[in-house]
Amino acid sequence: MKEPLIDLRAWRQFVAVAEELHFGRAALRLHMTQPPVTQAIALLEKTLGVQLFDRTQRRVALTPAGEALLPEVRELLVRAQALPARARAAAAGEEGRVRLAFVSTIGFEQLPSWVRAFRAQSPKVVLELVEATGDVQLRELERGAIDAGLMLHSPGFAPPGLRHLRVAVEPMVLALPAHHPLADVPAGAGAAAWDWDAVLDEPLVIFPRRIAPSLHDAVFGLYHAAGKLPQVAQEAIQMQTIVNLVSAGLGLAWVPESVMQFRRPGVVYRMPEGRAGRAARGRKGPAVPVCETSLVWRDADQHPALDRFVAFVSEGMAG
Known about the structure:
The protein is of the alpha/beta class and 319 residues long. It has helices at residues 8-20, 23-29, 34-48, 64-91, 110-121, 134-142, 196-201, 213-225, 239-247, 304-318; strands at 53-55, 60-62, 96-102, 125-131, 148-153, 163-177, 203-206, 231-235, 253-256, 267-270, 290-297.
């Protein structure tokens, strides 16, 4: 059986009578005459099918049902009064929810600092975070399961059909087992000290192409430019897993520079340029790929809280 709808005016009249325990004083408080208040309470009791007040000529008292209902009705009225302000806050992006997917590399440093700062700036916007690879993010964006994603790709290869904001650019670096001969080359020696033929002939640990096609192709392009065919020994989805496989001696791996923050015993990182953050082109070796991370989202969505988060990230990039 469907419960009848009761408007807020009836609940306000109930609270006034419950707090005054006098129909006349409740009517004055509501700027009404007494008969309509008495009739409204009688109609409310009839609609609910329970008696809310015991009435005599000398006193009015709440019944147990009225006592039980009073705190919840007070809360209902407070929440109802707050609705217009909440609607305005939601329309301005000051309140709401943003479902954000991210690749693991952005989670080492930038994302945690963004989350802290954004929550301090917009405490009523809930950021729901989920780690996901690029292929998963695209599917989830398509079906509306997430609002935005932080995705890894080669420069200029952000997914088509989506709005995007570049948030990071970094070179790829080489992760290799600590016992590898290249590990003994000083970190600042640069590409001239590398035996590129030997490096490119080593077994390779790499992510599947489907999770970051443009970046996968860029890594393969590094080998093809040198006349080499990559010897893929193992594929793994997560960068941490790739580094773990390198530590186990399965091969070498090209990973974004930010992965260097993942300190795994038995693994060392080497940069062809010998300097972090510099555009990666070996002095005497092939061009080493650069990767970008972009914030991506659907263009057609009307989502004020997401717009607020995008503006926050954009201002951070500009600053």
